[in-house]
Amino acid sequence: MTQWSALTDLCEPPRFSSANLREKISMNNRIKDAFASKQNLLNMYFTAGYPSLHDTLPLAQALVAAGADILEIGMPFSDPLADGPVIQRSSSAALANGMNLPVLFGQLQELRAAVPETPVLLMGYLNPVLQFGMEAFLKQAAEVGIDGLILPDLPLDEYEEMYHPLFQQYGVKAVFLVTPQTSEARIRRLDALSDAFLYLVSGPGTTGGTTLPDVEAQQEYFQRIAAMNLKNPRLIGFGIADKSGFDHACAHADGAIIGSALIRALGDTDDAPATATRFVQGIKA
Amino acid sequence: MTPSYQQPTARGYYGEFGGAFIPEMLYPNVEELRTRYLEILADPDFQIDLQHLLRDYVGRPTPLFEAKRLSERYGTRIFLKREDLCHTGAHKINNTVGQILLAQRLGKTRIIAETGAGQHGVATATVCALMGLPCVVYMGAVDIERQAPNVARMRLLGAEVRRAESGSQTLKDATNEAIRDWIANPVDTHYIIGSVVGPHPYPDLVARLQAVISEEMRYQLLEKTGTELPDFVVACVGGGSNAAGAFYHFLDEPSVRLVAVEAAGHGINSGHSAATSVLGTPGIIHGSRTLLMQDEHGQITEPYSLSAGLDYPGIGPLHAHLDASGRAEFISITDDDALKAVSECSRLEGIIPALETAHALAALGQLGAGPDDVVVVNLSGRGDKDLETYLKNMDKLT
Lengths: 285, 398
Known about the structure:
The complex is a heterodimer. By secondary structure, chain A is α/β, with parallel strands linked by helices.
């Protein structure tokens, strides 16, 4: 535990008992352990409750068994602004299947029985989390063994002022997005506030984009950030769909995040876990 | 001293509503706008260009017309602020002329917009034609069907109209698609939002550009009634841009009653409504914390109004604050009552209003205004775009 979180312990009346909190946090080093013990990490995104409501855990298990190093479970939202059409459609389908946060947390009760060691993040949008209640959300997330949270529309200032101590208290790590336009000063702030990894958005656009990136500008961007000596490892996401994209991202960062390409594959299958297995094997081959 | 209702805080909050809840991909764009808009708006060269365009291109000032037959009908003194006489037929162009001049000063070379009824899309396509900038307008597939004349106008003006096929395929979804376009084109593109919604500074920027409506009302009322302050100002609210403009210079005049009229659709409790102040709860939509229609799990629900311009599940954060603080009164009007008001205004005053505007007119009977009261209705747009809807509903128009 760092000095800072020890200080937070003293300042904030803990909801867990102190010993209990330390236990939760010490159990919660799965993200650090993964980056310390592996290279070229594959973070697989999928939408909770898609293609059918109860696919969430079978998919998690299949992805990990096939070689996924980190899981990012999407919490479906009606208006996912940072996502392209593929994840919009999977989100709508999941909502129509009956997915919502209470149902998801119910399914995740068995998360650590299904995938004991793998870091698992939740990704979603702020409004459903606020309606659930930020503290109630973090508490439930910590209890089912969630390691980190990605909320693209949670502003950095609001996070820092209102939520950072709560995240620390429950041992849930915030993961922030960095884009080619993010200034160096802002990247350093994001790096200082995070204790997981930075999510490097590969280029302009929403998830699942297919336009060819400006390769030179992209190289320059990845190299510029690599040269900043940030404390957090880096994963590259958005528009990475196959083995060559994954390998290319790994040359510039600690690994990559794939989502839309898997969701697309899951759209045409009767056996979601088997499709997920084949997908990951294709990337990791 | 009580704080002004006009000014949001530095982070864009009106009371507890506002802010900028945006993904990192939008941060540089929105931050550039936030740090520069006040300085650009205050720049004398900008103001010279803006005033010139408002006068010679838009046709401002718009008249304040005393509607004597409507006044007689409702037993009060009614004035209509004729925004329907603006170039392109609605108040929307007040904002787009300002934002296109702003976009030029930010060095942007491509313009995007969302549109519901099509009035904002037409107003954006118009200024883009004027300035020679390429323009993409996102419009819900449902709205493309029900506002066909405006789709044709945008295309004639050289804009590309892109269909938003997700969700309810209306204004909310068009706004989502415009935001996604901005994420994909962060450097060269300016997003001209059409209402007082979205992340800070948009609600303040659009309110300031629409404030010319109430600025003119004040001196026109002085001329016609001997006092700058009316007893009531009435305007319809979808996102709330014409209401923000009509209220703006009266916000800090507590003697003026501000009446915001929402679309009840088939009725507040029908499940087919867009009356956000009644059906909404605090949450985040399109980058702003405001009142919005959502389910218990925070999923944004589909609004309904016959009027495409009011068919939006949120209201601007200024309006959420005016509602929460009690500064403005909110009334909701059904489709059928709005249609009756279309007919009434057409036959009594010879003015065919837009369906959105008709909601404000339909509230006249609910104000409790007396014979000595002065009521100003913001006649935000003309009804030409709605002729097809009016023809389909002829039975309700008599």
